[in-house]
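Hypothesis: this fold can be encoded by more than one sequence.
Test: take the structure tokens below, design a sequence, compare later.
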């Protein structure tokens, strides 16, 4: 049976999303079919477009043009200049992508980057970002962000908060849920039968026996021992500064980190162009390129499509059951 295509939401139309969609189609063609959801007016001039009304037509259309499921946005766009008038259209594209995957007409959702201020200004967008909005659309309370490449998978337990807030927000319940969701999706979405998880410490040198902080001694290590008794393959807490060299990475399938930069600095150093943002814990597959709207280069034709291509390929692999 042929796998349904990927639903690619357009993202912020004044960013690099539209031109990257064209470059991704040129690179992938019918080998990794996707349908772009957005206003065709926002695509680069001269883009060959195949307007379709059914995602099932995407694979055939992709051999000759970019398959587009058109939405009418309120306004045209100028690259590099976000227009709040297009906020509702951007949101509608995400909603349509989710609708298609929930109906089984798409195998996965891939999202181009959005500009949250434009969404707030134009539509009163009430979510911190894509991830929280997708969780609301799916009706789930807890999701997990993973950054993945062929060289490393990392999961930050706390995400977009000040470093001073991390010790307050990092709780046993939060860490347990992060570990459980990560292990489950590595099994179900990535086809890893017995996922190996390495957990970083919160403090330098994982607290060094309490000399640099007691969280590791007081609750992190005991919690990991408790979770391991439930059948999870865990190690840690490890000093984060020794977790990401090649020999260490060979010993685990994903690294559970305590805060944003502890996770994202290593993967962006190792594989900046190929990193993919994956949302774990959803009832469908969602990936996204690991970059923003890049207004400074939008419309100049120089944006690198590598991360979007990697996101589409991973979405197809995960959508097919890895």
């Amino acid at each position: 049976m042929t796998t349904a295509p990927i639903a690619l939401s357009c993202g912020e139309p004044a960013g690099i999303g539209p031109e990257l969609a064209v470059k991704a189609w040129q690179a992938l063609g019918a080998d990794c079919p996707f349908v772009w959801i957005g206003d065709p007016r926002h695509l680069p001039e001269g883009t060959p477009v195949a307007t379709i009304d059914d995602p099932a037509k995407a694979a055939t259309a992709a051999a000759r043009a970019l398959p587009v499921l058109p939405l009418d946005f309120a306004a045209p766009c100028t690259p590099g200049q976000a227009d709040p008038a297009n906020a509702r259209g951007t949101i509608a594209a995400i909603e349509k992508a989710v609708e298609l995957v929930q109906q089984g007409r798409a195998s996965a959702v891939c999202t181009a980057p959005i500009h949250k201020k434009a969404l707030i200004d134009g539509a009163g967008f009430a979510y911190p970002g894509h991830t929280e909005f997708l969780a609301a659309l799916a009706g789930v309370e807890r999701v997990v962000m993973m950054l993945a490449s062929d060289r490393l998978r990392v999961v930050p337990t706390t995400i977009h908060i000040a470093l001073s807030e991390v010790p307050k927000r990092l709780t046993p319940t939060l860490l347990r849920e992060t570990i459980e969701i990560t292990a489950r999706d590595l099994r179900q979405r990535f086809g890893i039968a017995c996922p190996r998880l390495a957990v970083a410490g919160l403090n330098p040198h994982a607290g060094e026996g309490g000399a640099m902080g007691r969280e590791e001694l007081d609750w992190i290590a005991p919690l990991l021992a408790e979770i391991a008794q439930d059948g999870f393959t865990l190690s840690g807490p490890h000093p984060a500064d020794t977790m990401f060299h090649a020999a260490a990475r060979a010993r685990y399938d994903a690294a559970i980190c305590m805060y944003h930069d502890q996770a994202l600095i290593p993967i962006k150093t190792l594989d900046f162009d190929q990193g993919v943002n994956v949302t774990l814990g959803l009832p469908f597959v969602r990936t996204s390129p690991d970059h923003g709207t890049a207004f400074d280069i939008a419309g100049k034709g120089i944006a690198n499509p590598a991360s979007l291509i990697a996101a589409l390929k991973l979405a197809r692999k995960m959508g097919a059951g890895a």
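Residues 172-188 form the longest helix (17 residues). The domain at 151-270 is CATH 3.40.718.10 (Isopropylmalate Dehydrogenase).
Hypothesis status: open.
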